[in-house]
Amino acid sequence: MPEDNGARAERIREAIVSEEYGLALRLWEAWVCELRATPVAEARAGEFGEAQALIEWSRGVLAGARARRRGSMAAARAAGAYAGAGQRRASVIRTCG
Fold first, then answer.
1. Is residue 90 part of a domain?
2. For residue 44, what are the domain limits?
3. What pLDDT, in 10s, does the model give residues 40-59?
4. Does any domain span residue 47?
5. DSSP 8-state class, residue 1
6. How far does CA 26 lie from the centroid of its chain?
7. Alpha helices in 1-97 (DSSP H)
8. Is 94 domain-assigned?
9. What is the DSSP letter of 72?
10. Burial group, residue 23, by CB count within 10 angstroms (0-12, 13-18, 19+)
11. Exposure winner among 13, 38, 47, 79, fewest CB in 10 A?
């Protein structure tokens, strides 16, 4: 018996919240393949509604995660730039030859 769409959406949400993005992507792709294989006449509006709700929820969550990651990267770059402040760097003499 196929997995309930609500349970499937919850598993994807849990993977995203725990930052297991690869797992979330695999679960999502499997669900999409199943939805595509369902004849339109047999598809229930609820099936697509669950998918739409998941898309809307994940869009905001993933945008926040991306912003936090960008902030962390910027902070790491700044710390790296100042880590060597005050230390003299060796000069490199370039020669042609």
1. no
2. 5-78
3. 766 666 677 888 889 899 88
4. yes
5. -
6. 12
7. 5-17, 21-37, 45-83
8. no
9. H
10. middle
11. 79
